[in-house]
């Protein structure tokens, strides 16, 4: 297999570093690309380039800014298979997931372009007859730190609206997916002739990520941060940003529940559970990681669910029939298998899977899962579906809320009114009646509560995230100062 060689993108130029790191194909274990191992110095250069370009970029007429994003969408569609192949080879994505992700991101660029028309303000009443205005202005330089699971989508979600509303951006993609999550996006903007410095990409290895990440947050020229990733790292990012009084939008982990009530449509429940649990090997922040099913239908659901899960093919993700590809790396696989093994030792029943070959983990179903098990409480991020049996709506809601996370949820019921009532009781940022927890659209406010994050990405919410409100007034002679402060006019 040929090894690709890449450069970083800073100030509109492709930059080499003296050191590189290996980017592996998780399906076969070979080195897929050599990537520049950026340093704190490289981040400073990128932020300086962004700061130098931002003023002119924000002053550009908004239809022109939108035009660059629309160009990027068009170029992405023309190069779709380049991106799909990178997502499959670099990230272990099933080719169907790669087709979805690339198509979605083209739409995301277009939705972001539309947000230039959402930079709206207000005229407020003034007791002094002032022209009193509230306006939105960009933060300046926004840094984006993105993960490996949906690298193209989640990088773009963090940067597209930020660019549209007049910020310049420095992106650091995951060291697991630096190409599909960053360098290919730079190629899009380079071809679209985005002004130099408006968008920059710095890559680095795991060895350098702490120092690089720290600079992306603490550099005084950075006005805001978009972070998507683990709760542990997200806490650190949010804490540092908070200490410096910077805006930070952090979307973190999840332990999402799919609640299947006694009146659920069985086929709908099975489809939502299968897709939600096993799409992209369960490596989605809003994957179904707890299936909470009413005891009255638990036996039927479990039997049919296991039967369906055993039909999911594992193998080469370039083949459309293999919906289960590899886990991203050995560290993650060991975490998954450790949770499964420990749960079985503690009394859970292994109904399917529980084995692996290389980084390919068989889709796994566990029954009799209890709250004291790690697989109940901790994020798994793998193709594992724990089933928890409950009695009635109240217990289902209590079990679903028994989590430090609160990202998304699904509720399956034939009674829509009851489903919405349950959704309102759940401690999550998002909830979906008669669908899985895995849902997203470019314009919606995406985010969670509790340990699943702070802030919202998407559409109007991103406009608010990546801008600052300002109050401006125009005095027209109606305000009077107290007499001691007033200068007597000269005769």
Output the structural class. Answer: alpha/beta
CATH architecture verdict of the largest domain: 3-Layer(aba) Sandwich
Number of helices: 15
Q: What is the CATH first-level class name of the largest domain?
A: Alpha Beta
Q: What is the C-alpha radius of gyration, as a whole number of Å? A: 25 Å
The general outline is globular
Please bin the fraction of helical residues: 25-40%
- What summary fits the major beta sheet? 7 strands, mixed
CATH superfamily of the largest domain: Aldehyde Dehydrogenase, Chain A, domain 1
Mean pLDDT equals 97
- Per the CATH scheme, the topology name of the largest domain is Aldehyde Dehydrogenase, Chain A, domain 1
Strands, count: 25
Strand percentage: 15-25%
Largest sheet, spatial ordering of strands: 15-18-19-14-13-21-22
Oligomer: single chain
Count of domain modules: 2
The separation of the N and C termini measures 90 Å
Which regions contain 5 or more consecutive residues with pLDDT less than 50? none
